[in-house]
Write a structure and sequence with these properties.
The chain has seven helices and twelve strands. With about 280 residues, the chain is of the alpha/beta class. It starts with 20 loop residues before the first strand and ends with a strand.
């Protein structure tokens, strides 16, 4: 088995996790791939290489490693690329209607004990400027938006499964009379990836912003409120958003995509909030 890269057991974060470590051991029939990460991370690796078979994890290393996969031959380049990517991005707990959901980074950097004083991450700062500081400045908002889109597109093109998407969908903003920052991002991602853009609509002209609602209120306001007029039968869909808080909005968007005929839905956002 590969050397344990950390004396500490792997602890999964219910908000999302990066791949902590991976290693391979060759054998005459192929290789074993060892992972230290969540089930959602393991599922992405298995999807990238369907030939992998799950191997029971030896009890003596269960605190250090979380999954073992056996595959034929040597480690494929697409898997290597994915493993490196999963150490950079955050794999989110899978919402019900999505196959995989990723975030580029956390919104904040936990520095000190007071969360209200935590600084924004680099990606979080781009989101904050685009959504709030430059809300009335189209030129500056467009500049930071394009930087975020470039980062999103880089992740999608490096992900051997997510790169297969056919259509890109946005998450409707709380005010239907305005095009949200997240919707602008989704449209630009579709353009830069040369994918079909599909608008998702809300049955409500206005709803309270999700960040102002508790979990029960969000579920009541969001549930079955989004729809897609375009038929996307058999398509692999990608939902693009700026901020992931509870995941309710992205999950509802994915439900609407499936109802419109999508076969599979993936999700990607710029940042994941630190709160649960």
């Amino acid at each position: 088995m590969p050397m344990d890269l950390s004396p500490q057991p792997f602890v999964s974060d219910s908000r999302g996790s990066r791949l902590a470590a991976w290693g391979t051991v060759d054998d005459p029939a192929g290789h074993h791939l060892w992972l230290r990460g969540t089930d959602e991370i393991q599922a992405q690796v298995a999807a990238a290489e369907p030939a992998y078979a799950v191997v029971p994890l030896p009890a003596e290393v269960a605190s250090a490693w979380t999954h073992v996969l056996r595959g034929p031959g040597c480690l494929q380049p697409r898997v290597w690329t994915l493993l490196d990517l999963l150490k950079e991005v955050i794999t989110l707990p899978r919402p019900t209607n999505l196959r995989t959901a990723l975030a580029l980074d956390w919104y904040k950097r936990p520095v000190g004990i007071d969360p209200y004083s935590w600084p924004n991450s680099e990606v979080g700062d781009l989101v904050h400027r685009g959504k709030y500081r430059y809300r009335l400045d189209d030129a500056k908002q467009g500049e930071v938006g394009r930087k975020l889109v470039s980062l999103v597109c880089d992740v999608v093109t490096r992900h051997p499964v997510m790169q297969r998407v056919d259509v890109v969908l946005d998450v409707p903003g709380h005010d239907a009379s305005q095009v949200s920052f997240g919707s602008r991002m989704a449209a630009t991602v579709a353009r830069d990836l040369s994918k079909q853009r599909v608008r998702v609509k809300s049955r409500d002209e206005f709803r309270a912003p999700s960040k102002n609602l508790d979990a029960a209120q969000r579920a009541d306001v969001i549930s079955n409120r989004f729809y897609v007029e375009t038929t996307i039968e058999g398509s692999i869909a990608l939902v693009v958003d700026d901020v992931f808080r509870s995941g309710d909005s992205m999950n509802e968007t994915a439900r609407a995509a499936l109802e419109a005929g999508a076969s599979t839905v993936y999700g990607i956002c710029s940042v994941r909030t630190m709160r649960r």
